[in-house]
Structure formats: C-alpha cells, structure tokens
C-alpha cells in the first residue's frame, strides 16, 4: 500500500472517530442539561403548588372560623352605603324594567382579636360588605281619557349577596396583615410541608429524597428537615405566605442530595447504549487500523521475502550456469577431475535450492495440517548430538565453537526425530548467521518437573525486544536495510514454532541487542 494513501486513510478514520465520539459526548452533555432544565421546571411547579396549597389552607382556616363566629352572632346590623339605579323601557310591550344595585355594610360585632392579635385592647370590629340587587318590571295602564296612566308592578326579583371578589379581597387583606404576626411554626407544620412536597413530587414521577427548610429573610426558622443544609448552588426556593401585593418574608427552600445520580440515572440507559455503540466503533476502528498496519507489514515482509528468495536463488542459478558453460568447453570436458568438480557444484547448488523450496512447502503444509508427523520414543540428547554434527564444520570453519552441557537426568520424549533435528539445526543455524565474529554456541539441558528444557545460547548480535516478540512469525526478518548480508527468508523459526506446538511443547527466546540470544525449547518427558 502506498505510504501516503495509508497515512491519509488513518488520518480520515481518526478524524471520523474523533467526530463520532465528540457528537456522543455532546449528546450526553446536552441530554443531562435538558434533564436538569426539566427537573428545575418541575421542582419550581411543585414548590409553587405547595406554596399555594399552604396559603389556601391557612385562608380556609381563618374563613371557617369567621363563618362559625358569624353564625353564632346572628343577623348583622345593616346600612346602605350606595345605590345605583337603571331604567329600561320596552316600546313593543309597554314594559318598564327598573334595576337597582346597592351596597350594604354589615357589622357582625366580631372583634379583630379573632386573628390572634396579641393586643387585647384592640376593639376594632369586623365589618362585611355585600350587595343587594333588585329587578322590578312595571306594566303601563292608561286611563279612559287616554292621558292618565298608572304603573303596575307585576314582577319583582331581589337578591342579596355577591360582591364575592370584593369581600374576598378585603377579607384576605385583613387576615394576611394579622397573620404576619403569628410565628411561622404555628402557621405551617413540618408534617404538612413534607406531605405536600412528597405528594406533588410523586405526582410528577420524581421519586427521590429531598430536604427542605423555611427561611425568613435569609435566616433559618424552626420549620426545616433534619438534614437540610443551605447551599446556594443546589437549592430551589419559592416565596410562601405572600401578602396582597405579592411580597413575603418567608421562602420555602428544597434540595435534593441525590439529584445528580437521579439525572444520570434518567439517561443511563441511552448513555450505556451510546457508550456500547461508541466502543464498537472504536473497536472496529482499532481493528481496521490494525489490519491496515498488518497489511502494510505483510506487504513489506512479502517484498522482503521475494528479495531474499531472489537473492537465495540467484547465486545458485548463476553458479549452475557457470558450471554448465564450463563443462561445455571442449578443453574442460576432457578433464575428468574438473568435470566432476563442476558436477558436484551443480548438485550442491541444486540441493540448496531444493531445501529452500522444501522449507516453503513444509510451512504451507504445517499451516494446513497436511504434514504427517509421526512420533516415536526418542532421546533428546542423541538428537542434540546429531544436530551438532550438521553444523559443527561450519562453526569450525569460522573459527568458533559449539559445546554441549547435557545435564538433564531424564531425556526421553515422544517426538519425530527428523523434524525435531531440523528444529535444533534451524536454531543453531540462526545463531551462526547472526554472529558477526566467530560463533560461540552453548547447548544446555535440564529437567523441570515433567519436562525437559533445551537452552541454546549464542554470543552473537542479539535482538531488540520488538524483534523477540515477532521472531517466530512467518516471513519475519529483522530489517537490515537494503543490504541482505544475512541470508534467509524468515521461515526457519516459523517452522520451529509450528513443529514444537505440534509436539505440545513451548519455544521462546530471550535476547539483548549486542549481547547474544538464548532460545528455549520445552518438551514433556515420558
């Protein structure tokens, strides 16, 4: 994949993911704000309703007492204050309608101490006002001379009462002024406030704990719940016991200790779904990025593999071509010794290419579980000696050494002798390849419970931690730039891993750059 295209795809996907997460965060925050606004509106309605009910209850208490006393006093003394008259004449029926509307003042002889006034000397009496409405219909009767006439009243309706709004306003104004002098804890009880608040909150589906208090001009009163704490940022309030002008010395305050939990709980379902979908998107994004990176790595590995294979095949093919051309030379073909030497070179190079092709085919068969690996009872120490025999000449040629320290008390396992020998040879071959100087290789064995551990240690170039994690992956080779100074195609250790896994064993490596590497092979003992 083109590097620029890869970077562009990653940037676009990252921006898309950030945008999606930002939208989700904004939506959740906006939902919380909307819920909080709805909560505030609902609580304000609750407080307003509770305040009105408390005031209405107090007015009713006073009015009931007023009615009881009025009934016990009897008929009041009345006097007219004002009369309004209106006359209407119907030409068709010769009827005259007479309307009158008068206002009566009624004195009930009820002292104002009715309002619990502390001053016993106040002898002011309570007076009420009512209306008297009269409707009379007259019929015109003319005399025989056609001139004289008289009015005969044949219908008269009289109604006393009304002025309810005026009477009510006057009454409320009077009682509210006197009620101001009554202590707040005598005007309303804790039980009443709690009952009204709980009922109104339940009616609006707000099922959460609350604390309340009544404050007078910013100062606390006796009317408050036990756990109420004044906090300007988390309380809601409304005036209570307002006078006729809408002013009040008292405020009903309420707080909700678990408000945040309640608000979050109200959107928790949608928030969890949103979070799950976001996590799915993030996981998909991470998977897509991983696949892109993986594909890029695979493309690089394949390219490196092809380059290495080309390099590995190019030299044998060139050698074979040169040997064939030499044999075709008339002067050489008669020299039996040289012909044999060139034929030997052709055979060796052909084996070399065949071995590499076999490695590729063997890995492919292992991955498809098509490689038949029969296992027998074998001695690990014997296999180690055979593997050393395959590489000791190469080690000696480079001026190095390979030594064995076989200290395991038990060494018999169930394994395939050929494949297990190849495993050890491949590990040793890697140690030789990646030793810049003369290779120094030590092989140890030891028992650990029911397993035998083979440790192959070299003093070569070593590997970084990142390389150690990937060293058993197919086609993986540590990058050495464009110079392939170490031959290979990244299949040897992948083959090792597959074979050991098939033997129910373990293989792993430890290494440090510049200080060599150690490979461990662990197999179950018989």
TrEMBL record:
<keyword id="KW-0472">Membrane</keyword>
<dbReference type="InterPro" id="IPR036097">
    <property type="entry name" value="HisK_dim/P_sf"/>
</dbReference>
<dbReference type="GO" id="GO:0016301">
    <property type="term" value="F:kinase activity"/>
</dbReference>
<keyword id="KW-1133">Transmembrane helix</keyword>
<dbReference type="InterPro" id="IPR050351">
    <property type="entry name" value="BphY/WalK/GraS-like"/>
</dbReference>
<keyword id="KW-0597">Phosphoprotein</keyword>
<dbReference type="Pfam" id="PF00512">
    <property type="entry name" value="HisKA"/>
</dbReference>
<feature type="domain" description="Histidine kinase">
    <location>
        <begin position="308"/>
        <end position="526"/>
    </location>
</feature>
<dbReference type="InterPro" id="IPR003594">
    <property type="entry name" value="HATPase_dom"/>
</dbReference>
<feature type="transmembrane region" description="Helical">
    <location>
        <begin position="267"/>
        <end position="293"/>
    </location>
</feature>
<dbReference type="InterPro" id="IPR036890">
    <property type="entry name" value="HATPase_C_sf"/>
</dbReference>
<protein>
    <recommendedName>
        <fullName>histidine kinase</fullName>
        <ecNumber>2.7.13.3</ecNumber>
    </recommendedName>
</protein>
<keyword id="KW-0812">Transmembrane</keyword>
<feature type="transmembrane region" description="Helical">
    <location>
        <begin position="6"/>
        <end position="28"/>
    </location>
</feature>
<keyword id="KW-0418">Kinase</keyword>
<dbReference type="InterPro" id="IPR005467">
    <property type="entry name" value="His_kinase_dom"/>
</dbReference>
<dbReference type="Pfam" id="PF02518">
    <property type="entry name" value="HATPase_c"/>
</dbReference>
<dbReference type="InterPro" id="IPR004358">
    <property type="entry name" value="Sig_transdc_His_kin-like_C"/>
</dbReference>
<keyword id="KW-0808">Transferase</keyword>
<dbReference type="InterPro" id="IPR003661">
    <property type="entry name" value="HisK_dim/P_dom"/>
</dbReference>
């Amino acid at each position: 994949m083109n590097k620029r295209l890869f970077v562009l795809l990653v940037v676009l996907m990252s921006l898309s993911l950030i945008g999606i997460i930002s939208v989700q965060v904004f939506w959740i925050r906006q939902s919380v704000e909307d819920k909080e606004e709805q909560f505030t509106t609902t609580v304000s309605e609750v407080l307003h309703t509770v305040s009105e009910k408390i005031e209405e209850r107090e007015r009713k208490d006073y009015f009931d007492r007023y009615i009881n006393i009025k009934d016990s006093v009897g008929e009041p003394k009345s006097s007219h204050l004002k009369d309004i008259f209106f006359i209407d004449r119907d030409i068709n029926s010769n009827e005259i309608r007479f309307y009158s509307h008068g206002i009566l003042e009624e004195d009930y002889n009820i002292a104002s101490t009715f309002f619990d006034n502390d001053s016993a000397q106040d002898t002011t009496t309570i007076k009420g006002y009512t209306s008297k409405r009269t409707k009379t219909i007259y019929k015109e009767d003319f005399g025989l001379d056609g001139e004289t006439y008289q009015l005969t009243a044949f219908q008269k309706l009289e109604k006393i009462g009304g002025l309810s709004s005026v009477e009510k306003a006057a009454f409320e104004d009077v009682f509210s002024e006197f009620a101001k002098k009554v202590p707040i804890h005598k005007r309303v009880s804790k039980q009443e406030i709690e009952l009204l608040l709980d009922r109104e909150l339940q009616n609006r589906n707000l099922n959460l704990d609350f604390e309340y208090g009544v404050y007078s001009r910013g100062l606390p009163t006796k009317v408050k719940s036990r756990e109420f704490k004044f906090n300007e940022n988390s309380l809601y309030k409304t005036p209570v016991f307002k006078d006729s002008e809408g002013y009040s010395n008292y405020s009903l305050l309420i707080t909700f200790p678990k408000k945040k939990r309640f608000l979050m709980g109200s959107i928790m379902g949608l928030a969890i779904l949103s979070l799950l979908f976001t996590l799915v998107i993030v996981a998909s994004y991470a998977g897509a990025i991983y696949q892109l990176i993986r594909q890029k790595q695979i493309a690089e590995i394949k390219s490196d593999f092809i380059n290495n294979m080309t390099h590995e095949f190019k030299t044998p093919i060139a050698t074979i071509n040169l040997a064939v051309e030499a044999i075709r030379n008339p002067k050489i073909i008669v020299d039996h010794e040289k012909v044999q030497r060139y034929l030997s070179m052709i055979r060796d190079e052909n084996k070399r290419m065949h071995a590499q092709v076999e490695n590729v085919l063997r890995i492919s068969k292992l991955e498809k579980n098509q490689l038949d690996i029969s296992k027998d009872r074998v001695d690990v120490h014997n296999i180690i000696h055979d593997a050393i025999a395959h590489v000791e000449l190469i080690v000696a040629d480079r001026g190095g050494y390979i030594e064995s320290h076989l200290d395991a008390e038990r060494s018999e396992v169930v394994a395939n002798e050929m494949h297990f020998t190849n495993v050890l040879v491949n590990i040793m071959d890697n140690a030789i390849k990646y030793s810049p100087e003369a290779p120094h290789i030590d092989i140890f064995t030891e028992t650990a419970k029911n397993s035998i551990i083979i440790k192959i240690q070299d003093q070569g170039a070593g590997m970084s931690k990142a390389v150690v994690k990937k060293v058993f992956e197919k086609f993986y080779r540590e990058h050495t730039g464009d110079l392939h100074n170490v031959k290979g195609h990244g299949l040897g250790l992948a083959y090792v891993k597959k074979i050991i896994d098939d033997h129910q064993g373990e293989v792993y490596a430890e290494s440090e750059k510049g200080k060599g590497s150690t490979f461990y092979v662990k197999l179950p003992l018989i």
